[in-house]
Prior knowledge:
alpha/beta; seven-stranded mixed sheet; five-stranded mixed sheet
Amino acid sequence: xxxxxxxxxxxxxxxxxxxxxxxxxxxxxxxxxxxxxxxxxxxxxxxxxxxxxxxxxxxxxxxxxxxxxxxxxxxxxxxxxxxxxxxxxxxxxxxxxxxxxxxxxxxxxxxxxxxxxxxxxxxxxxxxxxxxxxxxxxxxxxxxxxxxxxxxxxxxxxxxxxxxxxxxxxxxxxxxxxxxxxxxxxxxxxxxxxxxxxxxxxxxxxxxxxxxxxxxxxxxxxxxxxxxxxxxxxxxxxxxxxxxxxxxxxxxxxxxxxxxxxxxxxxxxxxxxxxxxxxxxxxxxxxxxxxxxxxxxxxxxx
Length: 302
């Protein structure tokens, strides 16, 4: 049994496709951000500590919007992710502007996270039930050898406005075997969900197909492994301008190397996220519907 659990929020993304700091934008009826809903659900699920990773240039806005609001209500802190947070031996290409990816974003929190943690994205809405099942796993089952991944039914994570990329999960006896990134996922006029493999091959998918949405239940024992693999990633890097050290690939490799097992946590929660500016009105409407159903109050307060 783990006595403390934390929420780690990946909030350092550049927001280039969205066109601004979507992490800071209010989508709820009373101006709540998506992060506010994640904090609200996590507090209700019993999380003890909240750690964010942000860029240094976001600090002033983050302090104003989140630290002032929550500093006397929850255990909240933040760490920085920047391009120069690298091993001493590696020479940074001065032309690089792209962040190093979600693997490095978690790695920079190695001194801040000492307990089992739920890693989420700041611009994704995961749903109340998801936080509850992950919290239960982190307290009761999480160990250096056992992590978890919440999976959603594919039908619940499609877009009405175009195709999307989704991590399709291949499972074995309730555990993750591997994740296959699938592109152009959407429902055709005949009602069939289809996608495209990395090879370009078309694939038919079922409504109930499990899909991962960039969130993981992890143990702090991951950090030495993350550090070692980041070193290897940099040594083998072929594109020093755009190459990324990505958490889904790292965890999949750890499973394949039999270093960990990842338990599948099935959830019926709705998921929605903000990628493009056009997603804003859709997210506002869905949050409005959840408030009208009584799942959330008109104004979130801890």
